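Continuing the batch. This is chain 6 of the set; chains 1 through 5 are on the previous pages. Same settings as before, nothing changed between runs. Recording input and output for traceability.
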Amino acid sequence: MPLNLPDSFNPVDPAKFIGRKDILDTLIESFKEKRSNSIYDIELLGPIGIGKTSTLLKIRSTATDCLVVYIPGTRCDENKFMDDLLQNIEREARSQYGISVSLLDLSASLRLGKTSGESAFIDALSRLPDRNVLILLDDAHNVSMQALIALKSAVNHLRLLENKPVRLILASTHPLSERLIKSGMSQSAAFLFPLELKNFSFDETAILLTRLYPRWTKKSLDIAYSRTEGHPALTRMYSQAYHDLASSDVRLKLFDVQLPKPPESNPDWTVVAEYVLEISKKFGFERVSIEIISKCHVLVNNAALKWYEACWLQEPSRAELRAVLVIAELGGSAKFKDIEKAYGRNPAPQLQRAGKKGLIEHQGRGTYSLPHKFLAKPLMKWNDKKKTDKKK
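Output for chain 6:
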C-alpha cells in the first residue's frame, strides 16, 4: 500500500500548525517594533523538511496588522525575481486591504531592462499607503545572489532613508549573511538575525503522530520518535502510514469491547472484570500497534526516498550520486576526510555540485550530511536494488 505522499509533506495548514512557540513568540514581539530604523531582517534556518515553509505560512496567517507578501524562491535572474515579487505585492495589496495599485509600468521597465530590480522595488513600496510591510521569501538559498542583494539593499534603503517599516524574513537551508558580505555588501547591510528550526520534542512529535489516528501506545510512540528523531516531514509520514494501516486493521475493533451490565446480586464483579479486560486490551493492543509500526517503517522508507528525490533541484551525475551514497554508507553524515577515504579520491567538486542540487547539506567544519540520517539505509537498499536489476 503506497503512502499518500501529498498529505505527508505538503506545507501544514496554519490552523493545524503545532510547535515553534519560541520562534513565533520572538517574531510576534519583533513585529510590535514600530520604529523602522530599529527593525532587522530575519532568516529561518534548517534542513529540508524541517518546516520552514509551514512556519512562513503560519507567520503569514498571524501577522494580520501588516501587508504580508509570500514568494517562493526560484532560480532566476534579478529582474525576473523582482517582477514576480511586484506581481505578488500588487495582488496581496488588493486581497488584504482592497488597495488598488498598479505596478505594470514597473514590471514592463524590468522586462525591458530600463530599471534595476532594486529601484523597481523601492518605487513599488513608495506607492503603497504607509503601513508595515512583511516580505516572506521561501527557499532563499535558491535565489541568485544578485537578486538577494537587490532585495536586501532596497529594504535597507526604505527603512533607513524613507523611514518605511519594511521587514524581510528569509527561509534557507544555510546562513546567507556571510555570502552577502562576500558579494560586496557591508556587514550591517547584510545582517540577518538567525532563528534555527530544530526537530520536534517528544511531546510535539506525539501530538503530530496522533493527529490523524489517536490510538497509539507509549511504546509505539517511542519507536516512531527514535526513528524520526522528531523530524517534522518524517513524523508526518509515520502519522499518515499508521493512520492508513490502523484504519483498515479489523483486529483493532476487538479492543472496542464494552463490559456487560454487572449482575445486581454482585456489584463488585464489575471491578474485577474491568481490570481483567483493561489488562488484556492493553497488551493485545500494544502487540498489534507495534506490528503496525514495523509495517509503517517499510512504507516510510519508500515515501522518504520519493520525498528526497522530489527535493532535488537537478538529477545527480554518477560521480555526485556516488559521493552521496558514500555519505549514506557512513551513516548519513560524515567528515570530509572520511568521505575522501571511502570515495578513493578528492570528492570536493562532487560534494559541491551535490550540495547545489539539494542532495546533501554542508554543515560547516568539513561535515556533509543527508537531509536526515534516516535516509541512509533506504538509499543503500535502493542502490543495491539498482545493481541487482542491472545484473538481470
